[in-house]
Each structure stands twice: as C-alpha cells, then as structure tokens.
Design goal:
Chain lengths: 542, 94, 201
C-alpha cells in the first residue's frame, strides 16, 4: 500500500470533525463511520434489552407453573425477545454496524456510494424500532404471536400485531437500503488495485449478504403488509373462510426468513475469516473457495425455505425436495469450516480475545449446523419439530455463531475505531464465562427438547424441571459474562491505552490508516493496493 | 460530468417501440377472445414478457448498459422464478 | 467533502436498478399468491374475473404505455437541451397518471356499488375462490395505484429540479432514475392487465 497517501497526524480522527454541534453531529452525519457507530450503539442497546427479556423467560421456566409472570405476559415476553433479537439485533448487527464502519475502508473508499441514503437507513431502523416498542403500549397490548406472526392467530388476536407488522415492514426497508448501498459501493468505489480477488473476505460476505437483503427482504415486506391488510381492511388472503390459505403465509414468510438466516450468519463468517487469517499470520486458506462458498450459501439459502414447514401440511413431494435441497447448504458451510481450520493449521497463532471469540464461533456454529441437519432431514424433524431442540439449535447458530462473531468484531475493530485498547485479560476471562454459560444454557435446551419439551409453552411437566433449572443457571452465568465483557470493552474504548495503527498486525487497508480513522479515511490521495488482504509478507507484517 | 458511453436514444426509436407495444397489446386482447384452456395464461404471459422486454431494453435503456446491469436483472428474475416455481412443489402436489 | 465530490452516473443508475428489483419482488409476493390461487380455483377465478371490464384495464394500459413513451422521450429531449419539451412531456406524463387514477376511481366505485368489496354482504355470499380473486385484485391494483401516485410525485419533483436548473442536459441522472421508476410502474401493469382483465374471460 502506498505509504505516501496516509496522513501523519492521527489525533481524534473523525471524532474531532463533527458536521454539526452535539448530538446533531451524529444523527445528521453522512460519514459511514459515524453512521456505523449510531447503528452499533443502538444495536447494542436493543441487544441488552433482548438479553434481559431472555433472562426473564428463563426465570419463568425455572419451575413448572407460574413462577414470576402470567401466561399472557410470558407470550408477550418471548415474542418481544424474538422480534428484538431478530429484527433489531442480529439482522442489522454485523452488516449495518461493522459493515458501515469497516467495509468502505477495506476497499479503499471514502464513504459508501449513497451516504445520505445510508443515514436514511438508520433513521428507518430507529423508526421501525420505535414502532415495535410503541406496539407494546398501544392498541390491544403487546403482540403475543411469536416473532413469526403466523396466521390465523396473528390475524385474529386482539393484541397490537398491526403496528408490529408495520414496524417489520419499515425495518425491512432499512435493511434493503443498506444492502443496495453496499452492493453499489463494492461495485463502484473500489480503489485502484483493489481487484475482486484482493477484497477482504469480510467485504465479500457483506456483498453476498447485501444481495439477499435486496432480493429476499421485499417478500417479507409484502407478507406483513398483507397481514396488516387482513387485520385492518379484512382482505383475508390467508383466511380460509375467504378462500385463503394460511400455509401460503408460511411460504411467503419463510421465502424471506430463511434467506434471512444467511443475512444473519454470512457477515459473521466474514468476520471469522478475517480474524482467523490475521491471528494465524497466514493467508486465508482457499480464498477463492471462501468467496464462492459465500455466494453459494447466499444462492442455495434461497432454495430451502419450506424446510421450516414439514409438519405444516405441505405436500409430500415438497417435503422431499426441500429436504434434499437443505443438505446442499451444508456443503459450502462445511467448506468454510474446513478452510478456517486449514488456515489455523501450522500458523503462528496469537490467542488474543478476537480469535477466542472467532474460535468459539467455529465450534458452536459447527455444532449448531450439524444439529440443523437433524432438522433439515424430514424424517427426524417430525419428531423434534417445535421442541426445545429447535430453540437450542438456532441459538447455537445465531448466538453461538453470529453473536460470537459480533463480539469478535467488537474486540477486533473497535480499538481501531476508538483508537484505544481494552484489558485483554478481562476480555479473555469474560470469554471463558460466556462460553461456559452458553454451553450449559443451550445444551440443556437441546437435551430437554429431545426429551419432548415443546417450545413456546408456558408450563411443563415436572420431569423436565432439572434440565430447565440447569438452563436457567446457565443463563445467569452467560449474563454475568456478557456484563463483564461489555463493561470491559466500553471502559477500554474510552479510558484504555492508545493503540497504534495496527494493533493486531492485519494486512488489509483498515490497518494502514490512523486510529481513529480520519473523516474521509484516506488523505488527499486514494490508496493504491498492490497485494492481497492477507499477504502479510508484502504488507511488512512478517 | 457526462459519461461518454451513455447513449442518447433518438426520438423515433421510442416511437417505433411504442407502436410495437400497442400492436402487442392489440394481439393479446385479440387472442383473449379465443378459449385456449390452460394456454390462455401462458400465451398472455409470453406476450407480456415481450412487451416488458421492449420497455426494459429501450425505454429503460438496458440495451445500452453494461453486462453488470443485465446480469443483475437476470439474477433478480431468476430468483423470482424460483420463488414462484418452488412454491408449486407444494401447491400442485398437496 | 474537500473537493472530492464526483458523480458516479453508473453507480447511481445501478443503485436505482437494485431498488427496482426490490419493487419487482414486492409485487412478486402478490404474483405468487395469484398463481397459487388461480391453480386452486380456476373456475371461480373465471366467474369472478369475468366481472372486470376490459375497457377499464385496456384503457389504462394505453394510458400507461403512452406515458412511458413521454418519459423516455423527455430524457432525450433534456439531453438535447430542449428543456421546455422535456418539461412538457413530464407534465403530460403526470396528466396520464391522473387519468389512470380517475379511470381506476370509476372502476372501483362501479365495483363498490355492486357490493363487491371486503366485508360486504354480497362478498360474504360469494364462493371462497371468488372472494380470494377480488381480495387479490384489490390489493394488487391498489398497491400498483399507490406506485402510480408515488411515481407522479417523483416526476413532479423532477420537474421542479429541471426548472431550477439542478437537473439539466449535463446532469440528468435524477430524471433518468425517475424515468426508470415510472417505467417500472408501467412494467407491473403490463403483467396485471392480461392476468386480471384478459385470461379470465
């Protein structure tokens, strides 16, 4: 990379150059890093709310019967937990926060292609979030349908599903606009020498993700719009008494929501790819296979939606076809896992916190992914469908996968953005606690699911008490670890030791500029890229 | 400010395309008088596809854009076709 | 932005196309439902669809095709510095949008006066397949109508920009993108017209 183009003065970087005074310098800024931080702090806030709700669910399930809340409250709490975690944390989590912070720098751009649209996306996100929260206190009370809004219940319940559906519509368009922005940015704004095979794998996964955001998200938009119309206008397209078919709601819902699973996990895979290469000090093994598998996951993920509906009454042929197609997704996912391991093999590994979180991603995602095959195979799915096995499975891939990748990204990139380092020992300790708590909580869920405990039930038979109490203990340990991790990293970001430009020894562009980065990332000249993102020798790291 | 490879399409091209669209509309209305059974829909969709092809290629300048635009459009349509087509694995065989 | 302002026309157009894809898939959800319910209720769709008037649908087809021609020509006109012609054509397009909506208004009120609307007694007496047809007809043409109105507003805004000189022969990408949006509205109608007004007779 050309050293000449990098300004010598580091200072406070983009923090020192607010376009307006006070908070307006943030909420009206079109700088991708400021928008990224807006997203980051809003997302973390909602995540903490979601965790609190999750802890409440576990408390309620500590013993059979009513423990701390009534059944209706319980329904509202798990619905809200799902809606917040899915739509406000995990879908925008990595792309909107770290994608905005890092992706333009990684490709040598000064900003995204449409900066104003980017700011508008955040405003839409906040509008959707406020609508979702407003739905708790208005109308007929908090929605109690679960985050999936299945008809006919969602069309008939007196709770405020209408507003929540509109919130999902708005959040969907926020996601679409981010995806549109990223695809255009990656096509049009790469700097000189940033060829397609020199793009860091994190940016590649964002590219694949952005295409899913563009092509799948509109379908959830029309689905919730139709649900809204059914509730408000009485146009019962899913109402059997009007000739409609409730299963078509499930089709449309999962046509988006299954690809959305890959919106959630692909960017996490990109984070892990970057981190594993940097902390093993080796080029990412099978770079091209990683790129192709990202695109393949994005495509194959669009072919498998009905595997959520094996027991819904779809045709036997559909069950067979979608079960077969589901197994195809396992191939590119496995390619990624093997390539991460091959990258680590014989590397000079630095066991720093970002890598620890990335490693737990690999392990937990693999366990979650393999248990997903149990669900993808129709014969076994029939037995565990809608049990706690499913809940355990998706927490392994979503929280153990994307959640861990989000924490890894926090520990990897936030020191770059803030220019300060957290306490690595405390971070490691918090990682251990999180990992232990996680395993206790979700393994217990999987076991109790295999034993037959249905998901979303308020009550259970006494035989399940032991494992439920174990899971609740696990949730306490997990929460403790999360508190420690957040306190440590946020303290570090504001009061920690200053870091240099390149604390981890990365070779991609974001490590060649000052920490915190200046407003337009690069000085007067655009950077010229002369080597790949993991070429540590040419970058002078090794 | 202008980019050179952006083609200025002459007025008469648009008028010819418009005439073609009107003719195709006439054909699709005329064909609809005859009952072709299940083929009704497919004939109508084929003509509509031709019409939309003309609109996309000329009115929307797709003919003059780079391969990236064409490939993206094809991908989007392929995904839509998959969404519609795969649903019928369920609907037709239930 | 320290002198780095540059306009990427290809990027701007590409971004607009990506947005149009989302619109296509938004309507795609309704077309999936149309296809599924047509396969399930072929007879009821014919008995219900036969009540739609080809003259309304066909008339609106002509209106939209012509408006698309106006928009397409207006871009060429603007780039050839014929600003007044471009403005006039955009005005005519907005006129077409108004005509379309007036047409739609009479079509819907005629249906409403026959008691064909969600929640009516007549509706409740119809067969389920017929109810589904009218529900999806109202929702699809309604969503399309909303897009016609939005498109007209965008074109009106573009006219203001041309008047103020912000959009001109050298810098016309906003008109180009507004035009793309309007053509999409036309494209959707090209499929709605045969599927709802023709094949069910």
């Amino acid at each position: 990379m050309s050293e000449a183009s990098i300004p010598a003065s580091a200072g406070r970087g983009f923090f020192g150059e607010a376009p307006y005074r006070g908070i307006f310098g943030w909420i009206f800024s079109t700088d991708h890093k400021r928008i990224g931080l807006l997203y980051f702090w809003s997302i973390v806030t909602f995540f903490i709310v979601g965790v609190a709700l999750g802890v409440l669910i576990r408390l309620e399930l500590f013993a059979p019967g009513e423990t701390i809340m009534g059944a209706q409250t319980y329904n509202a709490v798990f619905t809200l937990h799902g809606v917040i975690m899915i739509f406000l944390f995990i879908i925008p989590g990595i792309p909107a926060a770290f994608g905005n912070l890092i992706m333009p720098i990684q490709i040598g751009a000064r900003d995204v292609a449409f900066p104003k649209l980017n700011l508008f996306s955040w405003w839409l996100y906040m509008t959707g979030a406020c609508m979702a929260l407003l739905s708790l206190f208005t109308g007929g009370g908090p929605p109690d349908t679960g985050w999936t809004f299945y008809v006919p219940f969602s069309a008939q319940t007196s709770t405020n599903v209408s507003l929540a559906a509109l919130a999902v519509f708005v959040l969907g368009f926020s996601s679409i606009l981010t995806g549109l922005n990223f695809v255009t940015t990656i096509h049009r704004l790469r700097t000189d020498g940033m060829t397609w095979t020199r793009i860091p794998l994190f940016t590649w996964t964002l590219y694949a993700t952005a295409w899913i955001q563009i092509l799948a998200t509109p379908v959830i938009g029309i689905t919730v719009a139709l649900l809204f119309a059914e509730r408000v206008l009485g146009t019962g397209l899913f109402d059997p008494t009007q000739g409609g078919d409730p299963i078509m709601f499930q089709h449309l819902f999962w046509i988006y929501s299954h690809p959305a699973v890959y919106i959630m996990v692909l960017p996490g895979m990109g984070v892990v790819s970057d981190i594993v290469a940097v902390f093993a000090r080796k080029p990412a093994f099978g770079y091209k296979a990683m790129v192709v598998s990202s695109l393949a996951i994005a495509f194959a993920g669009s072919l498998v939606w009905a595997h959520h509906m094996y027991t819904s009454g779809i045709s036997d042929l559909a069950v067979m076809v979608f079960s077969f197609l589901t197994f195809i997704v396992a191939i590119p996912s496995a390619i990624k896992v093997f390539n991460w391991l091959a990258t680590l093999y014989q590397g000079s590994i630095l066991l720093d916190p970002p890598l620890l979180f990335a490693l737990s991603f690999i392990l937990l995602f693999t366990i979650g992914g393999l248990s997903g095959l149990v669900l993808g195979s129709a014969a076994t799915d029939v037995h565990v469908h809608d049990t706690y096995f499913v809940v355990g499975h998706f927490h392994f891939v979503m929280f153990g996968g994307t959640g861990m990748a989000f924490f890894a990204a926090m520990h990897y990139w936030l020191p770059k953005i803030y220019g300060r380092m957290y306490d690595k020992t405390v971070a490691t300790v918090s990682w251990v606690i999180i990992f232990v708590g996680f395993c206790i909580l979700y393994i217990a869920m999987k076991v109790v699911g295999i034993q037959g405990m249905p998901r979303r039930y308020y009550d259970y038979i006494p035989e399940f008490t032991g494992l439920n109490q174990l899971a609740t203990f696990g949730s306490w340990i997990l929460t403790l670890g999360l508190i420690l991790m957040f306190v440590n990293i946020f303290r570090g970001l504001f009061y920690g030791e200053p870091v240099g430009n390149n604390p981890w020894g990365g070779a991609s562009l974001e490590w060649q500029i000052p920490s915190p980065p200046p407003t337009e990332n690069f000085g007067d000249e655009d950077p010229v890229v002369t080597h790949g993102p993991y070429d540590f020798k040419k970058a002078g790291i090794l | 400010m202008t980019d050179d490879h952006s083609h200025i399409v002459p007025y008469q091209t648009f008028v010819i395309v418009w005439c073609a669209l009107l003719v195709l509309t006439g054909i699709t209305v005329w064909v609809a008088q005859y009952n072709l059974g299940a083929w009704n829909v497919w004939v109508a969709l084929t003509i509509a596809t031709f019409k939309s092809g003309l609109v996309v290629a000329y009115f929307m300048h797709m003919k003059y854009e780079q391969w990236l635009f064409k490939l993206s459009l094809l991908s989007a349509l392929a995904i839509l076709a998959i969404f519609i087509g795969f649903t019928f694995f369920d609907v037709l065989y239930r | 932005m320290s002198g780095h302002v540059h306009k990427d026309y290809i990027g701007a157009k590409f971004g607009m196309w990506l947005f149009l894809f989302t619109e296509v898939l938004l309507f795609g959800g309704l077309f999936i439902l149309y296809a599924v319910y047509l396969a399930r209720y072929p007879q009821e769709f014919i008995s219900a669809g036969g009540e739609l008037d080809v003259r309304f649908g066909g008339g609106n087809t002509l209106v939209l095709l012509t408006s698309s021609l106006f928009v397409a020509i207006s871009i060429t006109a603007l780039r050839r510095e014929k600003v007044r012609l471009a403005m006039g054509l955009l005005g005519a397009t907005i006129g077409c949008a108004a005509l379309f909506m007036i047409n739609k208004y009479f079509e819907w009120t005629a249906k409403f006066s026959h008691g064909i609307y969600p929640g009516s007694e007549h509706f409740a007496a119809m067969k389920p397949g017929e109810v589904v047809f009218f529900n999806i007809y109202y929702l699809t043409t309604g969503l399309h109508g909303i897009h016609v109105v939005i498109g007209a507003i965008i074109l009106a805004w573009t006219m203001c920009l041309i008047r103020s000189g912000r959009v001109n022969a050298k810098d016309w990408v906003i008109l180009e993108n507004a035009g793309l949006y309007w053509h999409l509205v036309d494209l959707i109608w090209i499929f709605i017209f045969p599927l709802y007004y023709l094949v069910l007779h």
